[in-house]
């Protein structure tokens, strides 16, 4: 059973002030005031949106109450909440233990349509390509490859000056291939299936209960989230960027702390009859 979040609890925003979606000095876009757990479907990026980015994917710190807040919001939304991440679903489960959520992992190459559902995955990248990408990463100091099976992420946060040379080397490997693409992110290049992204994941979820018929809301911070922004905008939904504005977004949340405050507010809001 979930621990009840008291409806009168007032989360604080990034500036330490109480959340008020209508107050002009609050760092929440005005459109946030119309978001409700009973009418919206929630699609949430993780790194850079729910949690702060770290130098290594394994070094992130998950706020102690975040899994509980997400579980409470998912319950209020009748299950219409999904994590949409570059991480694998298995990695997401480890981060947010003991709760599991509907999820799209590896930028849509993995799908779990319900918290207790089976993980469906696109085919793994071919062995020759995977090995070539790893060899490129090994040729740069401070760069490492993260093999996700369906994709490979090449991280260069410890070697930011390598970005241009690393990108050229990876594009040389891909050549004219149409089945995979190189996708940039925060100090990372990812080799992934060309036909799948966070937008295709949102579209898949929105065609199924409990997401179908709701207003989609996507929160993300990176280039990798832009397909998700586009997908919800095309469905009359709401897209919120984190940190800086992005194409197809309707407002900006200051940082992951602000995102968590906003979600806590929604999870604690009194239940309303669905319109």
From TrEMBL:
> What catalytic activity does the UniProt entry give for this protein?
alpha,alpha-trehalose 6-phosphate + H2O = alpha,alpha-trehalose + phosphate
EC class of this enzyme? hydrolase
In terms of CDD domains, this protein maps to: HAD_TPP
Q: Which SUPFAM superfamilies match?
A: HAD-like (SSF56784)
Compositionally biased spans, kind Polar residues: 1-13
Q: What does this protein do?
A: Removes the phosphate from trehalose 6-phosphate to produce free trehalose.
Q: Which named protein is this?
A: Trehalose 6-phosphate phosphatase
Q: Which organism is it from?
A: Xanthobacter oligotrophicus
Chain's gene name: otsB
